[in-house]
TrEMBL record:
Name of the protein in its database record: L-histidine N(Alpha)-methyltransferase
Domain of life according to the entry: Bacteria
Ranges for domain Histidine-specific methyltransferase SAM-dependent: 6-307
Pfam families: Methyltransf_33
Keywords: Methyltransferase, Transferase
Taxonomic placement: Bacteria, Pseudomonadati, Bacteroidota, Flavobacteriia, Flavobacteriales
Presence of the UniProt keyword Transferase in the record: yes
Amino acid sequence: MNQTFYKDVIEGLSKHQKTLSSKYFYDDAGDKIFQEIMQMEEYYLPQCELEILNNQTEKIVNSFGYESFDIVGLGAGDGSKTKHFLKRITDLNKKIVYYPLDISADVLETNKQNITAHIPSIQVYPIAGDYFETLDKLIHDNPKIILFLGSTIGNYDKQSAELFMKKIYDMMDERDILMVSFDLKKNPHKVLAAYNDEKGITKRFNLNLLKRINRELNGNFDIEQFDHYPYYDPISGTTYSYIFSKIDQTVTIENQEISFKANEMIHTEISQKYSLNTIETFKNNIGFKSVEHFLDEGKSYAISLFKK
Ligand code: AVJ
């Protein structure tokens, strides 16, 4: 049994306001449901990111200002999205070496296969493990472009997002560039729909966390007795996702009993939406010299380059 997972779950569910961390969504079943989410009509984020990378890679690469550089992907995943971006860069005759960083060695193996199948000439050096530790140890002759794409930063609250970027800043040298994607504030109906789809795929994604606890931590959640409740606050730009208990009930996890009142909420995730203003505040607070934004047509999403 994964002791950290067990401890986090019991701690989170013992709080007055119950919580479970969204980082535990992604077991094999969760990965598959997330793939379905990315195909959903309502889930606009991947299309926006792709639109920017499809139409503006040349502008972005010109802004890098380097002929030869290393690309370091934080939380690189299977590379299925990055490969198009990397292909465009090599088509512009830039010399690049790609370092995909991820916790999972398995996913990095797939990443390398995906990338090299698409771009045979590229050098790929996957490194598994905690990416801050890896980033700190990497020694480069070339400037590096550090990618944090997929709007992953949205799962942090604003304060943690700034701290996260500051930690990267501290590991960058003067030539390095940090490239982050941010989902922007927009029509609140559109945001809410992305986390509250008609077919209930997002609901299934959330409730899979309870199933995972059943599978891995010997739990006995009756999934039918729980529901999903997403909520978007357009002022703060925060989407909150909750699971709630439909009835009074007691659940057992290993040998711990956890009681729920009817309609009691478990907070599971935030997905932060940004204004360009807030991103610029990050730049100033952290001490970056400049930030440049690349937006989609609909001004719905930003890829921002931070220079030191
Ligand atoms: C992977 C963090 C970008 O918050 O939009 C999608 C995860 N959660 N639907 C997001 C997610 C529910 C997603 N990110």
